[in-house]
Every structure is written in structure tokens, then in C-alpha cells.
């Protein structure tokens, strides 16, 4: 009997704290906390074998969510610096995804509540480990998108990060790629992202963008500019003819984006311009 085995064993002895099970040669303890249904009339029990807190072989009637022969989505329960992340595999002990299977930068490691598509690995000394699926494995569970997906909003889970971009599997099962130019910040491995489809490839994979649509971006930029004006008492020494470098330094916007934001504020009569300055409110003497 070895850690990781799923095996049927006979009940050999009943105790106050559980049962001893046997394969005819060895015995293993099934503790009461690991029993999922009454065993009074049972002669055999199907169990999963693992090490207990004292590294002794033990049995549980709980079935792991993933096995060495299969993959599944698992919840991240904790993140340990310089070590890796632990995932819930449905047992009383969590499995470790070691740091060598995670992104180089710890800021991109999964956090509690994220999900990873993993398989189980049992080390030679019986410890529970998990490994995220490779690209080949992920391709087996994806499906092809058609042109109707273009410009649609999608949500998905990050399953791979690279220097140039991020790979996602969407709720529809599409394999998606996010180029570094199509995001404001790099999403974590295992995190959930929301974006829109900006390209559908011939092979059925898609490219998505996490950047807001132009109209949404304009609204966000307009509120940023307006908030800046309010912080200065309702006036700023910037207008639509200001220097692009000055605009970039203060607002982090291109001149085109800045002008769109000002135009939106002007049309809604929230600002007006005068002699190189922009002011909140309506210009004095203006007519409805």
C-alpha cells in the first residue's frame, strides 16, 4: 500500500476513534474524521491512501478532486513566499504547487480564491503535490471560436503567463491570448479576467483586450481630468492646445485622449476654456 493509491480494503478492527483496514498483509487506520458514511454493515471500504500529520500512512473515504491520471480545476487556499501555493484537492490536507511551476515574479502567483487546472503528483516520500496543466493539456479541453465571437465580451481564467503576454481559457472554452499592449497591468496566474475579443484566428483561437472600449475609456479619462480640476479649486492651466508632454506627465494620457476627455466634459457643459485655462461649470454669459 502506497500514498496515492485508491484501493478497496477489508475492515479488520473497529476502535473508538476509527477502523483498522487491511489488504491481508498490512493495516492502515481510517480515522473517524475521514469516514463519509456509516460502515456498520460494510466488509470492504474504498479509500484513498495518504500520509497523516505525523507522516504515517492513513486512509480516507474522501476522494481527491484530482488524481495522477487526470486534471481538474482546484481552488487556491494560500500563498507561501518562496515556496509556492497550496490548493484544495478535497482532502483534509492540501497539495502544494511548488514555486518552480509558478511565474518567476511572486506578484503573479495565484492568491486565495484563484483557480488552477492541475493534476496530482505524489512524491517519493508520499507528499501531495500538484502541477498546473501544460499547454498541450489545455488545448485538449478548448474549442474553436468562429467569427461571431469578434468584439464580444468574454470572461476567463489565466492558465499561463509569459514575458510577452497572457493565456486564458474563457467560459466558452476558447483559448485566448492577451498581448502585453492590451492590458494595463499583468493579471495573476489563476485570476479571473474580463475582456473583449479583438481578433479571431484561423485556428479558432482568439485575442482579447483588457483595455476599456474607447467610449468607456473616454468617460474614465473625463472623470480623471474633472477630479484633477476639482482638486485645484475648479481650474487648471491646461486646454486642448496644451503641450502633449505636459499632458502626459500630469494625466498619463495622450493628447488625443485628453482632447476627447475635454470634449466630453465640454459637451455636457461641465467645463469651459478661456485663455489657455479650463474651468469647471458654465462660462458666464453663456446661453442654454
UniProtKB/TrEMBL annotation:
Q: Give residue ranges for domain S1 motif.
A: 151-211
Give the source's domain of life in one word. Bacteria
InterPro entries per record: CvfB_fam, CvfB_S1_2nd, CvfB_S1_3rd, CvfB_S1_st, CvfB_WH, NA-bd_OB-fold, S1_domain, WH-like_DNA-bd_sf
Which Gene Ontology MF annotations are present? nucleic acid binding
Similarity comment: family membership: Belongs to the CvfB family.
Write down the PANTHER family for this protein, in alphabetical order. CONSERVED VIRULENCE FACTOR B (PTHR37296)
Q: What is this protein called?
A: S1 motif domain-containing protein
Lineage start: Bacteria, Bacillati, Bacillota, Bacilli, Bacillales
Amino acid at each position: 500500500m502506497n500514498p496515492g493509491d485508491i484501493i478497496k480494503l477489508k475492515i479488520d478492527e473497529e476502535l473508538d476513534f476509527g477502523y483498522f483496514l487491511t489488504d491481508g498483509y498490512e493495516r492502515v487506520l481510517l480515522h473517524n474524521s475521514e469516514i463519509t458514511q456509516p460502515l456498520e454493515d460494510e466488509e470492504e471500504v474504498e479509500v484513498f491512501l495518504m500520509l497523516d500529520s505525523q507522516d504515517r500512512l492513513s486512509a480516507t473515504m474522501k476522494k481527491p478532486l484530482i488524481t495522477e491520471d487526470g486534471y481538474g480545476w482546484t481552488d487556491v487556499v494560500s500563498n507561501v513566499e518562496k515556496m509556492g501555493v497550496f490548493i484544495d484537492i478535497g482532502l483534509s490536507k492540501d497539495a502544494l504547487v511548488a514555486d518552480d511551476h509558478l511565474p518567476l515574479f511572486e506578484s503573479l502567483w495565484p492568491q486565495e480564491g484563484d483557480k488552477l487546472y492541475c493534476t496530482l503528483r505524489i512524491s517519493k516520500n508520499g507528499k501531495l503535490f500538484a502541477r498546473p496543466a501544460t499547454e498541450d493539456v489545455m488545448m485538449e479541453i478548448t474549442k474553436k471560436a468562429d467569427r461571431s465571437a469578434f468584439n464580444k465580451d468574454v470572461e476567463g481564467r489565466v492558465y499561463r503567463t509569459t514575458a510577452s503576454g497572457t493565456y486564458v481559457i474563457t467560459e466558452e472554452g476558447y483559448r485566448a491570448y492577451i498581448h502585453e499592449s492590451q492590458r494595463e497591468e499583468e493579471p495573476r496566474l489563476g485570476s479571473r479576467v474580463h475582456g473583449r475579443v479583438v481578433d479571431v484566428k484561423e485556428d479558432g483561437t482568439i485575442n482579447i483586450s483588457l483595455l476599456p472600449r474607447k467610449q468607456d475609456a473616454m468617460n474614465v479619462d473625463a472623470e480623471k481630468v474633472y477630479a484633477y480640476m476639482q482638486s485645484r479649486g475648479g481650474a487648471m492651466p491646461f486646454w486642448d492646445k496644451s503641450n502633449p508632454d505636459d499632458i502626459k506627465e500630469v494625466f498619463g494620457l495622450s493628447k488625443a485622449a485628453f482632447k476627447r476627455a475635454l470634449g466630453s466634459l465640454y459637451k455636457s457643459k461641465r467645463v469651459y476654456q478661456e485663455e489657455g485655462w479650463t474651468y469647471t461649470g458654465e462660462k458666464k454669459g453663456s446661453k442654454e
